[in-house]
């Protein structure tokens, strides 16, 4: 699988960090058109010709709260002929998002379309355990900071505990940030 990430460059070529432009897009409502563009582009350019099997796209709470979001996504899938099971939507655990009934219903509708729902950056926010209780995530992505702290006995134990918690809930696990042979070997040791 691959992850499609939104990037922005100014006219002079200067890169704008997502942490700067995404909140502005959310405040102004532009995130809706940007989000639909990202989903349509992923379907039309990466999934339609089977370049990759699954693509994940980050989804904003604003999108999940928008009436008709799942219907619009269904229309994009229909237009492009892409099966929903080839698309994953990532919800960032660090985001302040109350899990109201509209969001839960939208997630349920997206799952009905076959879209996978992934929890991103698990462990960095304050809502992760509540979200694990409320939502049947297909995959939980454990934040890279836990892997990078695993060089100490305490850090390794913490990562192992988090993996055990997520595994006991029945979710698939993806640990972000594996960059060295030692980290890869640790993931094999933890059966990831």
Task: Explain what the structure shows.
By secondary structure, the protein is of the alpha/beta class. It has 9 helices and 8 strands. The chain has a 6-stranded parallel sheet with strand order 1-4-5-6-7-8. Helix 6 (128-134) links the parallel strand 6 (116-122) and strand 7 (139-142). Helix 2 (30-47) packs parallel to helix 4 (69-80) and helix 4 (69-80) runs parallel beside helix 5. The longest helix has 18 residues, at 30-47. The mean pLDDT is 91.
Please indicate the percent range of residues in DSSP E strands (runs of 2 or more).
Answer: 15-25%
Global shape: globular
Largest sheet: 6 strands, parallel
Structural Rg = 17 Å
Terminal-residue CA separation: 16 Å
Query: Quick check: average pLDDT?
Result: 91
DSSP helix fraction: 40-55%
Spatial sequence of strands, sheet with the most strands: 1-4-5-6-7-8
Low-confidence stretches: none
Q: Would you count the extended β strands for me? A: 8
Structural class: alpha/beta
Number of helices: 9
Order of helices and strands: EEEHHEHHEHEHEHHEH
List keywords for this structure.
192 residues; two-stranded antiparallel ribbon; 9 helices
What order do the helices and strands come in, and which of them pair?
Blueprint: E1 2-4, E2 8-9, E3 15-16, H1 18-28, H2 30-47, E4 55-58, H3 61-65, H4 69-80, E5 87-92, H5 101-112, E6 116-122, H6 128-134, E7 139-142, H7 144-148, H8 153-168, E8 172-175, H9 181-189
Parallel strand pairs: 1-4, 4-5, 5-6, 6-7, 7-8
Antiparallel strand pairs: 2-3
């Amino acid at each position: 699988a691959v992850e499609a990430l939104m990037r922005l460059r100014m006219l002079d070529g200067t890169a704008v960090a997502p942490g700067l432009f995404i909140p502005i897009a959310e405040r102004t409502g532009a995130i809706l058109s940007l989000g639909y563009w990202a989903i349509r582009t992923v379907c039309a350019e990466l999934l339609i010709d089977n370049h990759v099997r699954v693509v994940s796209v980050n989804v904003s709470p604003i999108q999940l709260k928008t009436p008709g979001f799942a219907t619009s996504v269904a229309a994009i899938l229909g237009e492009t002929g892409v099966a929903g099971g080839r698309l994953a939507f990532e919800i960032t655990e660090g985001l302040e998002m109350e899990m109201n009934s509209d969001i839960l219903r939208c997630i349920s509708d997206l799952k009905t379309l076959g879209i996978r729902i992934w929890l991103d950056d698990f462990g960095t926010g304050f809502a992760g355990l509540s979200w694990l209780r409320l939502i049947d995530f297909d995959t939980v992505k454990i934040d890279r900071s836990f892997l990078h702290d695993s060089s100490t006995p305490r850090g390794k134990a913490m990562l192992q505990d988090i993996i055990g918690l997520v595994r006991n809930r029945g979710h698939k696990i993806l640990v972000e940030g594996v960059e060295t042979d030692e980290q890869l070997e640790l993931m094999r040791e933890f059966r990831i």
